[in-house]
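Async update (no meeting this week)

Hi team, since we skipped the sync, here's where things stand on the single-chain job. The sequence we agreed to prioritize is pasted below, unchanged from the tracker. I ran it this morning and attached the output directly underneath so nobody has to dig for it. Comments welcome in thread, and please keep replies under the output.
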Amino acid sequence: METSAPTRRLSKEKRRRQLLEVASVLAREEGTDALTLAAVAERAGVTKPIAYDHFGTRAGLLVALHRDFVDRRTEAMRSALEAGGKTLDAVAEIVSAAYVDCVIAAGTEVGAIDAALSGSEEMETYRASLEQGHLDELRAAFRPFAPPAVDLDT
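Output:
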């Protein structure tokens, strides 16, 4: 495994972004079995304690990778809705396209990350919040078009 050149001191957020990008490449190139905090730290050119400080555990890293993917897809959908979600048809088209784009963008590594987390307590907690987040996003997108008598929050 090739290591990066030593890296300069980054802010905590920039370092986290760097570690997530390195982990994503590692997962894509070598699979999730190779995805350890030590391997990510080595490839990023930082010490293991830095990786542990950011993610705590391997499961924490996997959840962070999955969350990062979902957050980027959600932000793309929000931007599209802000720019063009003026009618019910437009919102339905944007939401549908966002779902298809998400599935296409996921590639094999997101599914492998999900599988690697199966059965872990971190993943179960994360899945519940993920589902609630999706429902909240869809409710917000469609609420302007729902008849007053329809309660989208139930």
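Quick observations from my side:
Residues 88-117 form the longest helix (30 residues).
The helical segments are 12-30, 37-44, 48-55, 58-84, 88-117, 121-142.
Reply here if anything looks off.
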